Structure formats: C-alpha cells, structure tokens
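Troubleshooting log. The previous run stalled partway through. Resubmitting the same two chains, unchanged.
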Amino acid sequence: MEDAIISVRNLHKWYSGVHALKGVSLDLKRGEALGLVGDNGAGKSTLINILSGVHTADEGEILVEGRPVRIARPRDAMNLGIETIYQYNSMVPTMSIARNLFIGREPTLFSVFGVGILDQKKMGSESIKAIANVDLHLRSPDALVGELSGGQRQGVAIARAMHFKSKVMILDEPTNHLSVKETSKVIGFVRGLKAQGVTGVFISHNMHHVFDCCDRVVAMARGEVVLDKRIEETSIDEVHNVL
Amino acid sequence: MKRLFKTYLEKPELAGLILLVLLVVIFEIRSNGVFLNQDNLRGILGILPETGLVAIGVTILMISGEFDLSVGSVFALMPMCMAVLMVEGVPFPLALLAGLIVCAVIGFINGYVTIWFEIPSFITTLGMLFIARSLTIVVSGGFPPLLPADLPNWLFTSFVGPGNMFRMSFLWFAGIALLTSLMLSRTNFGNWIKATGGFHPAAASMGIPTARVKLACFVVCSMLSGFAGMLQVLRLGSPLPSIGEGLELQAVASAVIGGASLAGGIGTVAGGIIGTILIRIIDNGLVLSNVDANWFKFAIGFLTIFAVVANAWMRKRAKAIKMEG
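Second attempt completed without errors. Output:
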C-alpha cells in the first residue's frame, strides 16, 4: 500500500513453545488513529513489543515508509520515529519532568564517547515548550514526575514523543487505572495526534475509548487479526462478537 | 507533606547533614573543646579519605540499583597485589596500574554475573567478599610482604596544607568526590544511572543501555575501593591481609545514612560522604566524650536502622501522594 507508514508482513513469534503471533500482516496508514483491541494473550502486546524493539520477531518483515527495517532495540524504533507509551513504565517517578523528557536523549554541551555535560538550560526551556504543545498545564519542568497524576504523566509521555518528532505513537493501554476525568484527557491527547500529523496506535481493553478516538479498529484473537474495519463500518457489538 | 517529600528527593542528604552539625556541637561540648582542635581534626581527616572513597563507590552503585559487599575484600586485595608485584621489582606506577586492573576485573565479574544470571547483587558480591579475601591471603603467601622504601608517599600520604592539616590522600578524596558528584548530577551518564536505579523498565524502554550502566558502576565501585585500600596501606606502611574487614557494611551504612535509597534511584555522593563523616565522628567523639567505645557499633546500627525506617516511611508517603492525583 502506497500511504502505509508501517507495514508488517507475516509476523511470527514463539515464546518457549507458545505461538504468540501467527502470521500477522497489517498496514498502518499515515495520519490515522488505529485502535488495537483483543483479550489478554491475544497477541497485541507481542505485536507492539516487536514494533517498539522490546522483542524481535522470529519470522516476518517490517517495513517503515516502504523500506524493510530491523528493529532490534528500543533505540532502533525511536530512531525510526516509533515512540511507545506504556501504561506505567515510561517515566522515572524520582526524577524531574525535564530529566524524564530527555531520558536517553539528553542534549549535551559537549561529549566524549557519548558521555557529556547536560545542557540543563536547554532541557528546561525545551520541556516548557514541549509540555505547552500538548496543552498540559504544569507549574515547572523541575517538578518530580512522582508528584504528577496518572493522566498528567501520560501527557508528559506524549509531550516527549511529540518533542522528538515521532511519526508513529503507540499507546499501550494508556488509560488503565486512570479516573474518568483523566481518561478523557488522555483520549483528548490521542484525538490531538491527528492534528499534529502523527499516526497513532491506541491499545485498550475498553471498546468505548477506542470508538471514541480512533478511525479504524483492528481486533486480535489467539495471535491473529480477526477483524480490521473502519470505525463507521462496524460496531462495538460486532467487535465483541469476534473476540 | 509534598514539600517534605520533594526536599527529601532533591536533597536526601539533608537529614544527615543536620545530624552531623548537631553531633559536632554535642561532642565539642562533651569533650571540653578537644573535639574540634587541630590535632583531633587532623586525625579524622587522615582516615576519612579511605572509608569515604569506598562509600562514594557504594553510593553510586546503590543509586544504580545494585549493591556491593565485596568492597572490604577488594580494599585489601588491591594493595596486596601491588605489594607482591613491587617485591618482585615492578615499579610503583606499573604496580598501581595492575592493582587497578585487578579491581576493574572484579567489579566487572560482579556486574556481569549479577546482570547475566539475573541474581541479586547481594549474593554475587557476598561470594566475591570471600573470594577476594581468600585471594588476598593466597597472594601474600601468608606473610605480608615488606614494602619497598622508595614509595611515592609525597603523592598520597604526606601532610600538606596550612598547619599540615591534610594528608595528600584528602586531596585525592576531595577531587574524586567532586568529579563523581558532577558526574552524577551534571552529565547524561548520571541521568542514566538515576533512571536505571529509579525505574528500570522506564530506563530500558527509553533505550538506555542499563546493563552497561550498571556494569560501569560496579567497576567504578571496585576501583575506588581498591584505591582506598592502597591509601590505607601507604599510611600504615604495611599491607595487612585483614584490612577492610567489616568495611562493606560501614560503607552501606554511610550511603543509607546519607539518604541513598536501598531500592535505587535516590541518593547523592555528598550524602555518602556525610554518612562517612558521621560514622568517623561518632567513632572519635564517643572516645573523647569518655563514653565506652564499645557503644560505637551500637550507634552506627541505630543510625542505620533509623535512616532506613525514615526512608521507607518517605517512600510510603510518596506513594500516597501519587494516589492523590
């Protein structure tokens, strides 16, 4: 497909004998918000982990903007513009917002073999900008992430992905354990992605959230894609039935 | 409460510092002014670099989320290796290099085994505690070798400064403390160390090479311990195979009293140093205050438990604060 930003072809993954992905093929179109649903163990996390470089596929091919790529580490995925936001594990609570925004990609004044002095001024000013860009209102970039609410943390994670100009943002169950108000905030962030030209993959257990902010829904069960339709062509009931 | 939590995270060494000032005042009064006189301070400052350097290494490693119990043994092994080499006619600088390489290898093994086999560093380094101590005695052949006469004491142990206040070792200590402190707070590598210990899954998912970060901390910790051991041997003039026994626990106590979290992610080099000074001062001050010196370990034990309890309480509060949002 011409306008696919990520295509996966016939992806297989075994976990010590368990066939977790059974030949998954999927095209992710540029600028769309894709909802990925499925029960626990359906293979959606496996698929996401492969795209974000946490695991590697045993078989199959990944194409980013038409070119075959190898994603062996989280760093490779980031360099390709694929940013993943997890339920919990994308922020270090004992560190400040500014430091969290730049984890692993800190601007340095000078460096030797990749180790150098932090450009703290730049980190401060850029994080203020990044946070404002996602409409998040926080007192200071020096506030600790541990002080933020769950929704604010997801906001910072999204701000981080935006700041590094990611093309594809994968949100792995970002609304789990959030209050209703916080959840709607995160869903607002996902809706906002489109305006910024970012392709989104939104993984959730909650069908209503998916139908609230996505253009297309893909359902997985037992390691396979069992449904792939545009939101307006399907219904929550239909998706429930195939799962 | 948020305030307090934030202060603790930003300046975990603050409580230790307050306690330090308090104790100095108490000991100064109880000892009728002997405590802060020049001779006594000179004594404290002469020993401080040796335990202080070990505490710096242990603190950094603890921030990265790991633990090293073998530092006391490495403290003895490194100078013993140097002494044996020098007896064989190897010049001092080469022996120093060889000794540091031995330390680096031990640190690397500690880290590699811990990370590769995914076992607690507590166990790995407990094993290394015995191995390195045993090697120290095996290498020495049972008899501590005689150190050659032409050692560069001017570079490590001679008294310098106004009123001959410091030994050269103190300058090494101050320099290394400054460098490691800057490394932790001002460099991207320091950021990685804190992220790795603070929340490992986040650090890993953001592409930080967490295994290499931890390995580097293990190696730095071992090398600092060995270097500190060499300073002590040069000061004493003889490489005893028994030096540094119990030092590992004192170093952990220093780090914890200085506010480092056992779970990783929180702590400062300054905190580790403050913890070390506290321990040195209690040791010295109790004697000067005519208190039975056997209360020393009691005091250290009490302080450590107190610090960890305060630490745990803070973490609980921190969790409660997170829930509020």
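Takeaways: Chain A has a mean pLDDT of 87. The interface with chain B takes residues 52, 54, 73-75, 78, 84, 86, 88-95, 99, 102-106, 108, 111, 114-118, 120, 144, 146-152 of chain A (CB under 8 Å).
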